[in-house]
Amino acid sequence: MNLRSKQIVRVLAGIRPFRCLFLIGIAAILFYAFAKVTSVWVLPVCYLLMLWLYHNSRKDKEFLSLQVHGIKRLFTAEYLLLGLPFIISGIIAANYISLPVIILIAVVMPWIHPVRFHSIAMPMPLLYSGDLLYRRMFRKQVSLYAVLLFLAFMGVLHDNVNLCKVCLILWGAIQGTAYMVTPQKHELSVYNSFGMYQLILVKSGLRNIFITMFPFIVLILVLRHDTETILFCLALFSSTLLYQWNMGMSRFSFETQTVMGIYWLLFPLPLFLVSIITPVVLILYLALNIGLTLSVKKKYKHIWN
Predict the structure, then answer these.
(1) Domain boundary at 82, 111, 140, which?
(2) Element (H or E) spanning 295, and its range?
(3) DSSP string computed for 191-212
(4) Residue 242 near residue 285 (C-beta atoms within 8 A)
(5) Is there a domain that residue 120 lies in?
(6) Domain limits at 72?
């Protein structure tokens, strides 16, 4: 257990504190959503999917088998700890039938052999081809996207529109992380002008946001197609576009990814969340983006002179 604890600390150190906070926030939202689920099979299925993805992709099995005796017991204990939030959610929701199923999954999973998939280039013809950062982010987060889409579908089956909205908001927040990459020197020099970069950024946002959010919006409108829901979708789409535009510009204003992470937590992400609830904040968000754009343009004007 001491060895495993050191590995966990090393993994958390690699994730960095800001991403840890973001992941904790996502976990808290999912915990709240699961606590509201009354169906017997939703919790076990979600836990089985999450645990199988983790068990199938983990790369420390051979190393731990050489260092630890009874590795199956170690995995069982670890998987039971991972299933603890699901068990607590089931207790809160009075969903007692799913609890032994979750425990059984944790006990059986260490004995399941991993399935190896061949790595192939995933074509993405619908996404905007000019935005390589977004396409890179989508390739990395495609499994999370599938999970959120699955949870939204579960929300439709159980007439829970709030779960669909939460999944859509989470995906909107994740999209902005595509631009949390420190730019290389003279990256803007590949564009004929600063306006061209702006145009590509906006075109990419409009197309990619619409393509990836469209399934969630359809699922939401299947449940509720009143004026309030339509306004929510429009506000979320506008907020996500401004959020992505802001992140695409702010990466040229900061030297390190740490400072970029602090800025992301203080301004773009809170404004994104608040503007969904209060659309008037979109005006403030737009003003911030315009000011940021002028600042970046002034900073890099020597490239096109």
Answers:
(1) 111
(2) helix 281-299
(3) SSSHHHHHHHHHHHHHHHHHHH
(4) yes
(5) no
(6) 2-111
